[in-house]
Amino acid sequence: MFRVRGLAGRSFNDVDAVVGTFLRRSSSSANSGRIWKGRRIEFLLLMLGKIMSDLVSVIIPCYGQSRYLGEAIESTLAQAHSRVEVIVVDDGSPDETAEVASRYSAVKLIRQENRGVAAARNVGLEVSRGEYIVFLDADDRLLPQALRMGLKAMATDGDLAFVFGKCQYIDASGQPIPTPMQFQSEGIESYYSFLLECACPIWHTAIVMFRRRALEVAGGFNADFNPAEDYELYLRLARRWPIRYHDGVVAEYRVHHASMSSDPLRMLRAVAKALNSQKGYVEGDSGLRDAWERGLDLCRRYYGGLCVLKIKEDIRKKGFHPSSLHMILDLLRCAPGQFVDFIRG
């Protein structure tokens, strides 16, 4: 056995030079050049594979969030783990997304017509090179130890499809604000059951680190479930592979009016659709079926309750108008129990 020291953090050309020096010193015969040349290539490929194995690709889709994009990029470039690739996907954004991303020489910029966040993430995955993938929304930020924490959790099991931690809420200006209590990992025996029962407990994609091969086998994000395409992907992955929670706070989630999750009716429809897509997989297993039913009930109570508050606020501000009626009818279809609460209230 042998060991080549000093490869960590080297560029590909540096690695090639180190390998070449090692093999020249190891050669004991002037006539063995062809053999050693073949071994040099083999050894170089081996070392490149080892170095690429800890490369993390951070993919940042952006549409209409250029004012925050620089903060997202800089939070990625400031990671304690230095082996990071930053990809910004300009999803046909009407603002200065491309100009902001172009200010950073380390950023790979991909531009496309507007196709939605799921397609933008999938495009970023296609062009990325990392063995590990993080999807960061353009208005959020990673904390400095985020990638290091994710890699440490990933190292506990080579079959993990993804790991996830916690987030801290920030306001539009980037200042910390109170964060609701997040999930607890104690006693979780089946993460698939946990994801079903808690109705999208992984709040934001930035707290998740994926293993590339699991994403590729699963086929990435499905835009049919927008804006809960991330939840549907978590469910697909957890059905097939192990996943794991770690309790590190890894990201800052910006709470402002443009956040997708600020539309409770859209979230109600999408999360319910993601859960209903699992119905065929829980039949025949009473434990999973019970978790699925509890998840649907939680989805209706939580997002339905938010819809009731929004309807009442809209009526208070604007009076009763067609959009209010539309929302009330959708509430009746998606969360009849909360519709009853609204009528009674």
Characterise this structure:
This protein is of the alpha/beta class. The chain contains 14 helices and eight strands. The protein has an eight-stranded mixed β-sheet with strand order 3-2-1-4-7-6-8-5, sandwiched between helices. Helix 9 (229-240) runs parallel beside helix 10, helix 10 runs parallel beside helix 13 (322-334) and helix 13 (322-334) packs across helix 14 (336-344). The longest helix has 33 residues, at 286-318. The radius of gyration is 24 Å and the shape is globular. It starts with 11 loop residues before the first helix and ends with a helix. The model is unreliable at 1-16 (pLDDT under 50).
Topology, element by element:
Blueprint: H1 12-26, H2 33-52, E1 56-62, H3 66-77, E2 84-91, H4 97-102, E3 107-112, H5 117-127, E4 132-135, E5 141-142, H6 146-154, E6 162-170, H7 191-198, E7 208-211, H8 212-218, H9 229-240, E8 243-254, H10 264-276, H11 279-282, H12 286-318, H13 322-334, H14 336-344
Parallel strand pairs: 1-2, 1-4, 2-3, 6-8
Antiparallel strand pairs: 4-7, 5-8, 6-7
Average pLDDT works out at 87
Q: Segments where pLDDT lies below 50 for 5+ residues?
A: 1-16
Q: Report the sheet with the most strands, covering strand number, pairing sense and barrel closure.
A: 8 strands, mixed
Please report the total strand number as a whole number.
8
SSE pattern, N- to C-terminal: HHEHEHEHEEHEHEHHEHHHHH
Tell me, briefly, the overall form.
globular
* SS element count, helices: 14
**Cα-based radius of gyration, to the nearest Å:** 24 Å
C-alpha termini separation: 75 Å
- The spatial strand order of the largest sheet comes to 3-2-1-4-7-6-8-5
Which structural class best describes the helix and strand composition?
Answer: alpha/beta
Report the sheet-strand fraction: 15-25%
Helix content: 40-55%
